[in-house]
Every structure is written in structure tokens, then in C-alpha cells.
């Protein structure tokens, strides 16, 4: 479904942040992208979704295909229309708007209110917590609730694949569990996921395959259960005891 081959990214025309990254995500699959700070995980997601352009970066080598179609260099809006959404790090909700207004922004492409209503109902079904919060002002939600809101806003676009960057960042363990319960539910509905996560344990619980990055390269990959079991991997790359 998603395929990267030898992808290179340059920032400001001088910093080579990705040095030939190759990876795959199967339809309905769930892949974890792991590694230390600065390894290039966020850059990989930005290269795929096309937002790298607005970061003074560019994909300077390799190929990126989604659903059998080359998407390297395409603009983000057309990539979203093709079924690929990117939930960026930092939970950028529109703080003065309600939860439902934030969701409606994610569904701006719908031609009719009936279509919009259907998509909203789909989101509320997948993330019931958002239904309870629909009239609340987004800026006052907790971190975990805001994370659910940005996930909900992204699924308004009815994607086939979601790239999601650090969904557990700054969340208490209970909230992390709740956010991952949402991701598990979306997965069960057939959504494919590519997750960047510092919390290796939760990432490898949901993922079926994992890649570990270091200094702009993939240094290790394997089935999630194998990565979890591999002692060296646990200690050196994943920080698990
Ligand atoms: P983190 O978890 O800290 O976000 P990461 O693995 O996602 O880490 P990236 O954010 O992708 O890493 O960064 C990879 C490298 O690219 C780092 O060396 C970083 O300093 C550099 N970099 C990231 N964004 C830019 C930018 N806009 N301009 C220049 N260099 C950048």
C-alpha cells in the first residue's frame, strides 16, 4: 500500500536528514517507526505526506508510492484525497472552536451536509469520547482528549492510511492507553497505520512490524513480536529492560 525506496531528505539544501530509507506498509497493516530523538522519524512521515516542503526540506532522492501510484513531490491536499492522512506531533487543534467545529474542518471536502453528518457520526462511533465532548471548546480539553480530536479530524477525510507522530507524547499512562485503544479500534476497522512513537512498548503492542532508525537510516527491522523478544534490540535500541 505504501512503499518507500531509498528516500533521501535534505533540509535547507545542506542537511541530509534521511540517507536512503526503504520501508513498506501493507493494506490494513500497522507499522511502528522507532528510534532515538533526531533519528529522522518525523522527517520520514513529513516526506511521505508532502509537508516537508513547508519545513524548508525536500525529498532529494528515492521513490514514494501509495496505492501503486508515485506520490513523491505531490502536494499534501492531493495526497490526502488519495487516502493518506498525517497526524502531526503537537496536537494542533483550533483552540477557540468546539470539538465538532474542529472535526468539520477535517471534512471540508464534503459537498453536502448529509455527507458531513455521516462522516461525523462515523467519527463519534469510532471515538465515543468525542461525542460526549462535541460542544466543548477544544482548547480546554486535556492532552489525551486533544489527541483523540486530531485523530478524529484526520479520519473525517476517510483515509486508508494514517501516519501518526508521537501520539503518547506528554500523556499520563492511562490516557496513553485510551488513545491507543482508539487506534486499535480504527485498525480493526481496516485503517492502516504508520506510528512514530517513543513509547516502544505500546507501539510494539499494536504494530505487526517495526523499523528502527538511527541517524537517518533504518538500522533494524522485523516483526513486532521478534523485535520485542530480541534482547539486544530491547537494550540498545528500544530502551526496554
Ligand atoms: P524527534 O523524536 O526528536 O522528533 P525524529 O527521529 O523525529 O526525532 P527528525 O525530527 O526527523 O527526528 O529530525 C531528523 C534530523 O533532521 C535531526 O538531525 C534534526 O535536527 C534535523 N531537522 C529536522 N527538521 C529540520 C528542519 N526544519 N531544518 C533543519 N534540520 C532539521
Automatic annotation (TrEMBL):
Q: Name one GO molecular function term.
A: branched-chain amino acid transmembrane transporter activity
Q: Which GO terms describe its biological process?
A: L-amino acid transport
> What are the alphabetically sorted keywords of the record?
Amino-acid transport, ATP-binding, Cell membrane, Membrane, Nucleotide-binding, Transport
Supply the InterPro entries for this chain: AAA+_ATPase, ABC_transporter-like_ATP-bd, ABC_transporter-like_CS, BCAA_Transport_ATP-bd_LivF, P-loop_NTPase
Q: Which residues form the ABC transporter domain?
A: 2-240
Ribonucleoprotein among keywords: no
Q: Is Cell membrane tagged as a keyword?
A: yes
Record family assignment: Belongs to the ABC transporter superfamily.
Name the UniProt record assigns to this protein? ABC transporter ATP-binding protein
Gene source species: Piscinibacter koreensis
